[in-house]
Amino acid sequence: MNSMTQAPNLLTTKHIFIVDDHPFIIQGYKNAITRYRPAEYEFLIDQAKDCQSGYNMITNPETHPFDIAFLDISMPVYEEKGIFSGEDLAKLLMESMPNCKIILLTMYNEILQIKTIIKTINPIGLVIKNDLTFEELLFAFDKVIKNEKYYSQSILEMISQLEHVTIEIDQFDKKILFQLSKGTKVADIPQYVPISSSAIQRRIGDLKVLLKLKDASDEELVKVAKSRGLLL
């Protein structure tokens, strides 16, 4: 009688986090992930539907650290905690779970926004959703699992043009634009952005000059900022 027993096949467990406000997109990601090398990996998948539920999941002390996070950039905001996009969730993850590999996904294809994302987040994955097929998602996931960067084709094309792009804005400018887009009066913006009224007015003027809108209204500033990818 053979007393030797076969060792169990131990799977590598990966904890995945998906944040998107479209349930069918989350399901698509889950379908692809669970088909990736099922004989080698076991995936534990958590999901959230907006900035607030994403924030709550990340900051919950009982949450196991994520290995990989898929974050949609444009989602319903969590203004109370200053979380306005998937970029802000990515920054929170970088602080609280520094080993998490971040994949940002967006429908936007504005080069200025892409430049800002690469500079501030430098994600291991950056994808224009329109580039993403089921097979391409599996390919991207394989690259990230192997700790290799994956940027979709549209992103690569924009990166090739980045050296010609000089417009950049900071987080205060983004928050000011966001409040203007909501219809907040300029005099009331200091309630949401921790700088003085005079500094806010100066920044609005600088933004108009930057976008060649010197004599334009605040509404026109918001419209152009959105078209240029400076406001989600």
Automatic annotation (TrEMBL):
Top-level taxon in the UniProt lineage: Bacteria
InterPro entries membership: CheY-like_superfamily, EvgA-like, Sig_transdc_resp-reg_receiver
Q: Which residues form the Response regulatory domain?
A: 15-145
Keywords, A to Z, come to: Phosphoprotein
Report what the protein is called: Response regulator
Sites of 4-aspartylphosphate modification: D72
Q: Matching PROSITE patterns, A to Z?
A: RESPONSE_REGULATORY
